Amino acid sequence: MSQRASTLLRLEGHIIDSMMLPQLMDMVMDLGGSFEVRELKVGQRNDDPSLCRIEVFADQPQVLDEIVRRARDLGARAEHDEPVETARVQQEGVYPEGFYSTSNMPTSVLLEGGWVRVAKQEMDCALAVDRQLRRAWCIPFYEARPGLDVVVGHRGVRITPRERSRDTEIFGFMASEVSSEKPKNVLIGQIAAEMKAVRTAGGRILVVGGPGVVHTGAGHYLSRLIELGYVQVLFAGNAIAVHDVEAALFGTALGVNLTSGLAIEHGHEHHMRAINRVRAAGSLEAMVESGQLTSGVMKTAIDNGVEVVLGGSVRDDGPLPDVITEMGEAQRRMRGAIWQGGDDFEPGVRLALMLSTMLHSIATGNMLPAAVRTVCVDINPAVVTKLADRGTWQSIGLVTDVESFLHELVRAIEVGPAGEEAR
Amino acid sequence: MSQRASTLLRLEGHIIDSMMLPQLMDMVMDLGGSFEVRELKVGQRNDDPSLCRIEVFADQPQVLDEIVRRARDLGARAEHDEPVETARVQQEGVYPEGFYSTSNMPTSVLLEGGWVRVAKQEMDCALAVDRQLRRAWCIPFYEARPGLDVVVGHRGVRITPRERSRDTEIFGFMASEVSSEKPKNVLIGQIAAEMKAVRTAGGRILVVGGPGVVHTGAGHYLSRLIELGYVQVLFAGNAIAVHDVEAALFGTALGVNLTSGLAIEHGHEHHMRAINRVRAAGSLEAMVESGQLTSGVMKTAIDNGVEVVLGGSVRDDGPLPDVITEMGEAQRRMRGAIWQGGDDFEPGVRLALMLSTMLHSIATGNMLPAAVRTVCVDINPAVVTKLADRGTWQSIGLVTDVESFLHELVRAIEVGPAGEEAR
Amino acid sequence: MSQRASTLLRLEGHIIDSMMLPQLMDMVMDLGGSFEVRELKVGQRNDDPSLCRIEVFADQPQVLDEIVRRARDLGARAEHDEPVETARVQQEGVYPEGFYSTSNMPTSVLLEGGWVRVAKQEMDCALAVDRQLRRAWCIPFYEARPGLDVVVGHRGVRITPRERSRDTEIFGFMASEVSSEKPKNVLIGQIAAEMKAVRTAGGRILVVGGPGVVHTGAGHYLSRLIELGYVQVLFAGNAIAVHDVEAALFGTALGVNLTSGLAIEHGHEHHMRAINRVRAAGSLEAMVESGQLTSGVMKTAIDNGVEVVLGGSVRDDGPLPDVITEMGEAQRRMRGAIWQGGDDFEPGVRLALMLSTMLHSIATGNMLPAAVRTVCVDINPAVVTKLADRGTWQSIGLVTDVESFLHELVRAIEVGPAGEEAR
Amino acid sequence: MSQRASTLLRLEGHIIDSMMLPQLMDMVMDLGGSFEVRELKVGQRNDDPSLCRIEVFADQPQVLDEIVRRARDLGARAEHDEPVETARVQQEGVYPEGFYSTSNMPTSVLLEGGWVRVAKQEMDCALAVDRQLRRAWCIPFYEARPGLDVVVGHRGVRITPRERSRDTEIFGFMASEVSSEKPKNVLIGQIAAEMKAVRTAGGRILVVGGPGVVHTGAGHYLSRLIELGYVQVLFAGNAIAVHDVEAALFGTALGVNLTSGLAIEHGHEHHMRAINRVRAAGSLEAMVESGQLTSGVMKTAIDNGVEVVLGGSVRDDGPLPDVITEMGEAQRRMRGAIWQGGDDFEPGVRLALMLSTMLHSIATGNMLPAAVRTVCVDINPAVVTKLADRGTWQSIGLVTDVESFLHELVRAIEVGPAGEEAR
Fold it and tell me: D42, CA 20 to 30 Å: which among A173, A276, B357, D202?
């Protein structure tokens, strides 16, 4: 084996039960290399890290390079690492060819002088680097400005896979619950506890809400959550706001009376009339101020200082003047609201409830770093699976109707877990 | 037109808004016939019947026969009707060729001496007739015994299409609600009111329950419904009973702890051990009597004298000794329980709640006369559509999880409509 | 009855089997009025219209007004009609209070001098009227400009409900097929025939396509449809175009190899690299011209002069420079493409295939007049039901995977109905 | 550590990449024990096994026992194993309390004299042992006969977890494909190849078919598969057989014409008449022999000697005389057909296609040993997930309509992979 190229890799942390070591061994053999374990210290207690030093071999240097590159993605460090390579952005909104494409997991880059943690971590971005300031941060396409240095290739980039906690946790490690057959009350009680913990720690809670929240008559539960101080940010579209105004002005949603459940003759017009009234007033806030809008989710959000971002879509009726119709601007506003109140490495939003909306939930999920806890609620299991399975570390999916979910959640927050009265 | 065959048909009732008249006109023209309206009196008030006498023409007598036959299915009467034709059953369990295949709607047959209403109305049966006793009744295949007279062809058979009430009703006329987007609380409140009305009138309520009722932690709500006197009959399979016993003995369902929502190590064995215990005891009732089974839906049902029919299936584990493993016997028992407490024309069961089970719900739906109100609850919209759309007059479908439904239903029965506390 | 207000209504067409007459009778009685049928001539043959003159009575004039208003929505004409009332737009983008909200059905307005048919019919718009030019047309919110006269109230507005053809038709009358259990080949054969008929008559065919078209490996079937001349307009989003470019450049979609079905290591980066390449090139067309893009749906569409409108959304990665990111502009472009090649009353697009995309399909469905035939294909029955049920006259829904649908459709167009080889 | 109990465990095989080692370490620490790795030899090549000798410690002997018990379930062997403990069956159909509940994975029991592999492996059974014959085998409840020795507890029982092959395989290791977004043709081509390999090796192929196979017009494709020799066993219910006979006699399924796709007037009666004809004839085979049944899946199956098991259900109409209405008997017949043609350890059936039926597919899946490859096809993703996720090693789920699947499968078998013509 003396002719072969080799290098020494080092793994630290929960390398066995987090699958780092087995995955690395697997990868090496898949690429035609081989390895010898030089040192293996296995941690004995929950919080003991393990250490493995492993020498990898390959017949060709480029294979060895590929092994090292992938090993780094698995969290390994080469004993002798090389700093990142960068190229300069030449064209507005275009990354240099060969750019490193980010994940949503904590990432560091090796500059001369040591490892630097990447700020504003987000998936599907490029990595901008300022060597003088020793800073690295994620940039979406629209922030690629000529002159910026952007990482190319995988050299000198390391991500930190999350280590699985041995404590039993509701927000599972890469293992989201999406069953409709499990006892739901238990989960909701744990979500309520988590929300309280986030607020106690000063974190912000984001609700991403679809029109179903109002359709199903659950708007007043969401209003209650806002009043109780459990919503700091609200992402939504035109439809939920229109339904909400329609409910406030006419007592209907899409022409269906929210109290009797019956369709109103010519009631569908209410939808259009609600839009027209807001357009005439100029904004939702103006309607609240002038006393035209006296109830509903939007009114409660405005009264309580919730940061609202309404992102438009091509199917919108109207839309309301408050809706952001330019999609780049909408994304900018969403990113701003997510990081507001946090720092470079941890966003202000610490927990996100995604309620019955696929479009805005996917948009949001793509922007969140992996550490933000997410709860996805939809009556369609396919939507829940799709949302819960976006590589976030800590996500829960519930297949249920949003009205039931919000009802139980409000109760769990106000008076503890439900179901006691009937037992 | 003098050469053509003609006959005079008579329609009575809400013939215009129930579509009887337009459908009849349509049908006549589709078959190449023509018609002239001889008399049309349109009712002015809600309860005024209308009357139409209409002469139909066709070039060939057999076409005229077909027109009259189909007109009868639409509820029309020929002014000069002929009595039914019958053939004798020759072979056990086999109808005579050409047998009349029943619907679930009220049906009458014309014997010498007048129209006789069919007893035990049910779809997909044959019509047995006893001319001496002036009796007619539906027989499933297994009741076809040599010697019985069975109606063949369509002559002398008339069904009574239900007339649509002009009162706004929750149990719609052939128009089931299956949306997951409508306010659910309203519907559940109305279902609760209907259940109270049924009980006040002495009717029986049937619950058809799938294993999800216990899985989702909703068993105690169903128990509560039973204790409150709102369940007289329970149709289910092996699985729900096993889960229920498992929950009572071990606190789990399929190995998942119903309180914490967490999977128990080796917990799946609980499922098998629960089955074994009941098999050892001989029956659920024996377990209750010996004090081995002290909680759960089955215990509550036994304590409260609910008529339980557990119908087996090919996928059953065990099964429990209480499960009827011969399918013909299971159907007989179900039919018996449906009609028990009623008379020949109206079954004792006046309302059926079908909760998260497709197999048993379809089996039940096929046996119910059209007048029995049905409520179908499932989280899968396709199941709800399929169940709600079985030609019953009065069905409601709710796309929601069964735990939420039962929780709200119990509350609506005990303390009135929900959602008040959070408004 | 002499004290009561009354008026004479006239119904013409297939008033009985289209339910016009029964619905009108029902409505009158629901509102507390009454009626007497003055004349009823029922058409005898398929193409014979019927005529009914019916006098309606009410105790109060405003009730009578309401009756007449609703009767007009049902297609009735008051014998003595009054012209429309209008109000002037005062504020850019805001309709006058009380505006008439349109449906997607053919509508006429009564001006001095007679009825005028409304141009550019579309639902959820207002009606602009130019009395001098004797013109009326639908305006979406963004076309409400100060000075325009807009219809308020329901007076003088008449819609023409579509009459049901007695011919058996695949594109059913308000009765879309959404079953996954029906023989699919038959439907697809009939769709192919309809597409041929549309093209022969010079109509344009619109495809609204979701990313699944490329994901599932069905892109080449769509390309084939384009080459065969069966697609003139393509509405889609960023994702399908990105997947298509990724497939052309790297042979993958979201990193999954389209030939082997296996995930490629680091393949997800292909998605981002494809976007970056198009951004660098400036547009899809530029990539085709420079020879960088040599295959795929977008290349075929560009080569064959298909009118492509890519509407953005808030969840887009990139997006491609071709994507319209301002939603009002996207809607304007879609409306333009729909009506291009037609006239004021009939759009150029005569048939729309909506393939696996809810967002763009709903956006499109909202813009189409009721007479445009639509075919909705999705593997999720809930999506198909939602799309097929938007009040278009002639829609078909198929619950199937889009790859199978396109495969069969291409075959049905090229070589006739499928399934022959295996019979 | 001298006071603690300890024992030496041995793991062999692909212990790292199959997760055996990490899971074991995790489990030991979860239970409060600790460990020291005594020896670790990691295999370097694909087929090199690894070996690990690990000493585990616990403060209490019962904890150590629990560790050893669970380690055995993970595939570890204690260096010093103890033989199984048994108890005698006392009551017909009832296992002894504390019985060992089986999985579907290869299992061995330690008797005096060495390890014995369990025959007729199946999940949710007990283990019968005959010490004299040195035999062990799975018994379902109904085979528990007084006098049999049955294993109790976990001592002396070892299961062999399947090792993951490093070859890329379509039938994934515990990782079923259930996406509707992947290229389907590729998968179907690989399934066809697997079916050919199974037949070449003399294995039997089982089709579990739901009524949708005939509904959707795909019956002739299944018939073709039978004729081509790719179906040896057919499990189904009453419905598919009735639909098939109805199609053969009347050209309809549930009254819908299979060629035109249109509903036939009074067509639903065909369903009942088809049942009656078979009941009159006595059996499907009698109808084939007498020339009454000349086409369809059942006729083809009978002609080609396919072993057919029709298992009844409580929702059956009729049923046909061929349907087994006693569920225990149906299960016995299914087990017989699965193992027919195999030996004690490998059933004759080597591959199962489960087509659009949840009831019979779950029943079948519960009976199959883990090594039998399964393919689950349904248009409902929830059904596919549920079926594909039953602990079999090698399962594929396809979310598609069964007609498309069978069409492509027949083509892939007859003429190679599809889609070529349109490329």
Answer: A173
* The two three-digit tokens of residue C35, written as one number: 């009626």
Could you tell me if A283 lies within 8 Å of chain D, comparing CB atoms?
no
Report residue D411 as tokens: 């083509």
> Is the preceding peptide bond at D319 cis, omega within 30 degrees of 0?
yes
CB within 8 Å: B185 and A217: yes
Q: Are B353 and B205 in contact (CB under 8 A)?
A: yes
Instruction: Specify the range with the lowest mean pLDDT, choosing from A80-84, C372-376, D297-301.
Output: A80-84
Q: Measure in Å the smallest separation between the Cα of D44 and chain A Cα atoms.
A: 6
Q: What is the pLDDT at residue D80?
A: 64
**Cβ-based neighbour number of residue B343 at 10 Å:** 9
* DSSP conformation letters of A66-77: HHHHHHHHTT-E
What's the gap in Å between the CA of C68 and the closest CA on chain A? 14
Kind of pairing between the strands at B204-209 and B349-355: parallel
Residue B361 C-alpha, separation from nearest chain A C-alpha, in angstroms: 18
A373-378 and D373-378 beta bridge pairing: unpaired
- Cβ <8 Å between B101 and D382: no
DSSP state of B94: B
Chain C hits for B165, Cβ within 8 Å: none
Question: HEC string of chain C?
Answer: CCCCEEEEEEEEECCCCCCHHHHHHHHHHHCCCEEEEEEEECCCCCCCCEEEEEEEEECCHHHHHHHHHHHHHCCCEECCCCCCEEEECCECCECCCCECCCCCCCEEEEECCEEEEEECCCCCCEEEEECCCCEEEEECHHHCCCCCEEEECCCCEEECCCCCCCCCCCCCECCCCCCCCCCHHHHHHHHHHHHHHHHHCCCEEEEEECCHHHHCCCHHHHHHHHHCCCCCEEEECHHHHHHHHHHHHHCEECCEECCCCCECCCCHHHHHHHHHHHHHHCCHHHHHHCCCCCCCHHHHHHHCCCEEEEECCCCCCCCCCCCECEHHHHHHHHHHHHHCCCCCCCCCEEEEEEECCHHHHHHHHHHCCCCCEEEEEECCHHHHHHHHCCCCCEEEEEECCHHHHHHHHHHHHHHCCCCCCCC
A312 with C330: Cβ contact below 8 A? no
Query: How many Cβ pairs within 8 Å bridge chains A and C?
Result: 107
- Is the model more confident about D29 or about C67? C67
As a whole number of Å, the CA-based R_g of chain D is 25
Chains A and B form CB pairs within 8 A to the count of 115
- CA distance, residue A410 to nearest chain B CA (Å): 8
B145 and chain D: CB distance < 8 Å anywhere?
Answer: no
A94-143: pLDDT as tens digits = 999 999 999 898 899 999 888 899 999 999 999 999 999 999 999 999 99
Query: What is the pTM for the complete model shown?
Result: 0.84
DSSP-derived letter for residue B95 is P
D335-380 tens-digit pLDDT: 999 999 999 999 999 999 999 999 999 999 999 998 899 999 988 8
Distance (Å, whole) CA B124 – CA B122: 7
Residues of C in contact with B29 (CB under 8 A): 44-46, 166
CB burial string A190-203: b at 16+ within 10 A, e below: bbbebbeebbeeeb
Dist CA D135 CA D117 (whole Å): 8
Taken in order D296, D302, D303, D306, is the CA torsion positive or negative?
Answer: positive
Q: How confident is the model at residue B167 (pLDDT cuts 50, 70, 90)?
A: very low
DSSP-derived pairing of the beta strands B107-111 and B157-159:
antiparallel
Stretch (H or E) spanning D377: strand D373-378
A363–C313: do the CB atoms touch at under 8 Å? yes
Cα–Cα distance, D355 to D377 (Å, whole number): 5
